[in-house]
Amino acid sequence: MLFRSSLTPIAPILKIKSEDKRNDASYEVAGQEICVPQEHERIIFPKGARFTLTPKQCENSTGKGLFDLLIEIECDGIVTEHGARRLNGWLESNASSDILAIPFLLDATRNALRYGALATDEALELQYAIERVLPKDIREPIIKKRQLIEGNLPAGKIQIAYIREQGGIPNPRMTIAEAQKLQDHLCNNLPTDRQLEYIHSLGATLPPNMNFDDAILFIDQLLHSKAATEKQINFIRELGGNPPAGISQADASKLIDKLLVEQREKQARENLPTPRQTMVLRFWNRTDLMQTSQWEVAQWLDQFYGEDHRRKAAWELFKKENHDDGSQRDPSWVPIGVCERYLSKCGSNEFKPE
Description:
The chain has helices at 55-59, 61-73, 81-93, 101-112, 120-133, 136-149, 157-165, 176-187, 193-201, 212-225, 230-238, 249-270, 275-283, 294-307, 309-321, 339-345, and strands at 15-16, 24-29, 32-37, 43-44. By secondary structure, it is mainly alpha-helical. β2 (24-29) and β3 (32-37) form a beta hairpin.
């Protein structure tokens, strides 16, 4: 049964932040469909409210059920997507309870699952909420276990965005620990290990007392002071370029990048959509674009996904449900126009093909 965000049974102790209601994302737990609002109404709790389960609450069936479930899903040290969904399903079934931990965790699970998949940032936010609910003697070893493993989790979007704001270049596959180290370097404006290694590969050593910004300038000076390599010169010619005499490594690198972009765009304008692009077009019922070019499809997708990020999530959900790992090459396996079903699951406004 679909739910809405207002929790009538506990309304006297809660306030609802907004009245925005959007479509729901759904998934299955033990064969039963569970729906989570895409943008649910966050619950504002009374100031100073205590959410930790008390010994008395753990004695009744509801409190004990919640306690046992939390212990079970915390066995890995960090709540998983499956665990988050199991917890949300249980909380929905027990939303009328007067145990304050239940609406608190219900709000946390709805928020964590609002985009379908459980990303690192949302997983940790939910993890902290669970730790807050557990009794202190149980909470402390779980926190220690989480602290041992969370550094190896993929860095979250917030960390990646912060690094970029600070002028860093994050590896999209970096872990939380690696991202934190890079953040520390950027905050302290220290040269990164990657900068030092690159400078060393150029046959130089960074002078003492230089910071991150100094290292960037130093690398740029080194690249402009060194003549382009034979490999760079040959590659430029292979791409149809004409390298000027005495061109530096830095300028050769820029010219190569420019030529590669031009080559890719030329090929994309000349070739029909790729099998993967054709799958996406079938999904969105845009078969009218199948006889255009790779470039035109890419331009349309950039604009289309940019207008509503849930559209990209709908396609990703379709691939996940159908176990597509990227190796599929036959576009015909994608049903034409199946998009609306997945948009509904991802909470997007109803999509009407053009």
